[in-house]
Amino acid sequence: MLQFVKAFVSDERGEDLMEYGLLAAFIAAIALAVIIADPLGLGTAIQNAYQRAVDALNAA
């Protein structure tokens, strides 16, 4: 069992994938925080664009 743990700890395969996954999660968390906090009015702009699309489809 100890040998398995040592081999697992020293195995570096897949490290890059883990780092890219963490980076993607960090970027997603920041993007979500910006959209929720809406300091630039981005959420409002998205809602307005969606509403214009819905109105255009309802009018057609």
Short description:
The protein is mainly α and 60 residues long. The protein has helices spanning 2-10, 15-37, 42-59.
What are the SSEs and their pairings?
Blueprint: H1 2-10, H2 15-37, H3 42-59
Describe the structure.
The chain has three helices and no strands. The protein is an all-alpha fold and 60 residues long. The model has no long low-confidence stretch (mean pLDDT 86).
Order of helices and strands: HHH
Q: Residue-averaged pLDDT, rounded?
A: 86
**How many distinct beta strands?**
0
What share of residues is helical? over 70%
> Structural class from helices and strands?
mainly alpha
For the CA atoms, what is the radius of gyration? 22 Å
Kindly estimate the percentage of residues that lie in beta strands according to DSSP. Answer: under 5%
How is the biggest beta sheet arranged?
none
- State the helix count: 3
Give structural attributes.
60 residues, mainly alpha, 3 helices
